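Troubleshooting log. The previous structure file for this entry was overwritten by mistake, so regenerating from the original sequence record. Sequence copied from the archived sheet and checked twice against the printout by T.R.
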Amino acid sequence: MKKLWDKGYDLNKTIESFTVGNDPILDKQLVKYDCIASIAHAKMLGKINLLSKDEVNELVHELNNIIDLDKTGEFNITQEQEDCHTAIEMFLTSKLGDIGKKIHTARSRNDQVLTALRLYYIDHIAIVEQSINRLTTSISNMSNKYGKIQFPGYTHMQKAMPSSFELWCNSFSDSMMDNLILLKTATKLVDQSPLGTAAGYGVPLNIDRKFTAEELQFSRVQENPIYTQYSRGKFEITILHILSQIMLDLNKIASDLILFSMPEFGYVKLPDEFCTGSSIMPQKKNPDVLELLRAKYHIVSSYEFQVSRLTSNLISGYNRDMQLTKEPIMNGFSVTLESLQIADLLFSNLKVNKQKCHDALTDELFATEKVYDLVKQGVPFRDAYLKVAKIINKI
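Regenerated output below.
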């Protein structure tokens, strides 16, 4: 099977396997986006008279056919094809002959994959936003149901002052609202069309990049072709950093719930069907779901580190190292979306034990309140602080 870069020799099979990597599997997620970008590209080639109207129509028809085949799992990418871009072009050529060979005019696989990835990112950022909105609704519902119940707040893992489930729930809702701001920033960054920059130095044709940007609903064209290649990695690091921020919130939620659901505390209870057991201890109901949710933050955070290391120390222009940034960003989206779904389930099903919370509100939690009772009577704060401290220490 010929490569897009075929030079008349067969590639060593071990080298081929090493260089292709997981792309045939990963690129299943990009088929639709590559076809959408190729449709815009074909229309642009027609606009500048490099394709006839009939050729454009035939290409658009077959590209939509690929999208439909992909939906039903009938479009395959082989190891020999390397990636979705080759598989799509080979399909077009097999169906349309020379017309299919014309689709790659005025572009490279470099700007082709960048465009497909940008479209993928914009869609998946929107899906993350939707998942956050669902989660914050569930958090709000829990707050409405149990919000007035007080329980101890902690500093240094010691009882500090009274807290409440309204206060606790809303802390995460507020943070998720900030995460949405960050996601909007990521979308604004990604929302620029790389199509037409080829391998980082443009093409020697008078193409209409603004046309393809508008067709693909990008808000603007990414002008500098060298920066277009350089921004691959830079944009992924930004997205993964934001996903890590989301996962950091889920990590803290999980850590709190592990503590609060311990029998020694008992402020909240997980449904039995959310807990696993021990193979040796019959009494155990383990919060494995919370422990894994807590751990997933470190997984997503490691993806950010991976991409930042992969893309540093490279000279300007495309380097094959960039291929390895695809898996961590896709995995980052996958893990974050799954974790948000789990968190949504948790908040929708947690039960609060009002009595346990009330019993935990021991006298020392109200020490600061007692200080301010004295302050309201005119006692200087520091004197009031020392007076209450002496009483507490006697206890």
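The two ends are 83 Å apart (CA to CA). Archived copy saved in two places this time.
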